[in-house]
Task: structure prediction
Amino acid sequence: MVTTTNAMKKLLNRVEDIVPESLAGLAKAHPDVVKIDAANNVVLRAGGPRRGKVALVSGGGSGHEPLHGGFVGLGMLDAACAGNVFTSPVPDQMEAATRAVDGGAGVLHIVKNYTGDVLNFQMAAELVAGEIEVASVVTNDDVAVQDSLYTAGRRGVGGTVLVEKIAGAHAEAGASLADVTATALRVNANVRSMGLALTSAIVPAAGTPTFELGDDEVEVGIGIHGEPGRRREKLSTVDEMADWLVEPIVSDLGIGRGDKVLAFVNGMGGTPLIELYVAFNSVARILEGKGIGIARSLVGSYITSLEMAGFSVTLLKLDDELVRWWDAPVHTPALRWGV
Amino acid sequence: MVTTTNAMKKLLNRVEDIVPESLAGLAKAHPDVVKIDAANNVVLRAGGPRRGKVALVSGGGSGHEPLHGGFVGLGMLDAACAGNVFTSPVPDQMEAATRAVDGGAGVLHIVKNYTGDVLNFQMAAELVAGEIEVASVVTNDDVAVQDSLYTAGRRGVGGTVLVEKIAGAHAEAGASLADVTATALRVNANVRSMGLALTSAIVPAAGTPTFELGDDEVEVGIGIHGEPGRRREKLSTVDEMADWLVEPIVSDLGIGRGDKVLAFVNGMGGTPLIELYVAFNSVARILEGKGIGIARSLVGSYITSLEMAGFSVTLLKLDDELVRWWDAPVHTPALRWGV
Result:
């Protein structure tokens, strides 16, 4: 007998209960931070809507935890809508979230660029039109591919975490909907990502790996739902694999000597932290070689693809204002500092 | 072609460089918090020894990240010694760490109960005897087995994280070596853990899984190095599997209706967060049924076994003083709040 990932070995009761039970666990673990609208699978900031504060709503398919529910709380999101695994939430969920968090100053929808998410958030905005002012920012930071399974244009991936943190801090400071939206757009314009997979995830309802990959193969430019990337390569050193990700990002972002970045090395869910720090070391060495400074960093599994092994790199070109909002206090289940 | 965990697919350059490169990455990602003594593979709190503060030193084999290096910083450890993967650090490392952090108020060694770790920390204490006052607390919270591969008596596992946090807060507040030691002992006396594995880890130097487990099998009472547990079971619902862990803990700890605990659901490295929150929900339901209150919680992969899939449960019986030290500010790579 051997251990294989082809067998679905997960911590769950019934497959159809994994999302509501995970949300219930989130609320029980962090009752001071979040509560759950169980009828809609929406994670809400504890304490009700903040009068006069722009509210931030995001959401998407489950399976990318802590994104998005783990980012609800002070200085980040006011609500997150959880779809089924790798499936967009429906407009009713987004409408319920938008109504629940509106404090009279408008609501910003932060939407990863996947066709279903974009369409459904648009419909939700239409459902509250005339009652609540809604703006929307679509994140599309993945440089791996133009158009993809589920997406027209670039996919929204790791940069979304940074958009949510930085726009959330600006909103917490009392900025207007127009200003918070402008900040979110500015982060999205200055952030790029790319990832690779060593293994596939297994969607619970499917029970088998989403894609097949040889024992010595890597999918370079993988999407967070297992969508195909740019190419397959033989497994290599992490130095070389980091190079496969950093080069397209740096090139696309147009950064070079003297620029400062936030460097985010993200685990896809099944890769342990010892390896993520090895990968961060590789990324840091490559950036040092280019004269690009790492002013801030984030290392961990923050936007995942179930138990997929692999990592992604996200670079955000920083300026003083973005650093200030990044450093501002945040208190969510998954990101916390300053409070 | 199929994806299997039998093939070693890791983010590394040379196998022998994984520990120093991971430590280098840790320091590059968190230069405000930690620095590395690269000659000794020791993680040190940035800014040098704190005059008059009791210093806390821990360490052990690598492969359990973020334990221990990720817990170095304000309000927790002053140094962590990193051995090779699943291999005890040597006394020279522990001596170097002890000398580097001594601020004149004594040093507490926090040692997980594995024969090599215990012996080597003892030797390190002898090497500085007459120069630095050293106390030692051996954690042994794993209720799964008495004696085990690598261990006489119970193994030290998840409770170690709580000992480091709580004793670290007491030391940060200026307590004496005797008082910090007493607090560490009190946490260890009131904490119990047990874990299970869905898959094996692969030690890089070995290149193959540490143990074999059928596609429908679970090792109940697993150690963090893949040591055998109590028994093998068929994979079951997370509700039932959580029960296999919680019952022995509650029984051994002797807690019941009206007691308050810190509930810690820990991922073994390869299990994604969506599943850990499902598991937390199961644990919370079981405790609710017993009238045991969850006053504090921790959910995430904090003491891991490389890419092993599975989880452990740790319960700490709380009193007001332990809650106060748990809530105190902490700023390390892996745990941060209040600052």
Remarks:
- Helices of chain A lie at 18-29, 91-101, 115-127, 159-172, 177-189, 238-253, 273-289, 320-327.
- Residues 61 and 86 of chain A are 4 Å apart (CA to CA).
- The mean pLDDT of chain A is 96.
- Chain A has eight helices and 14 strands.
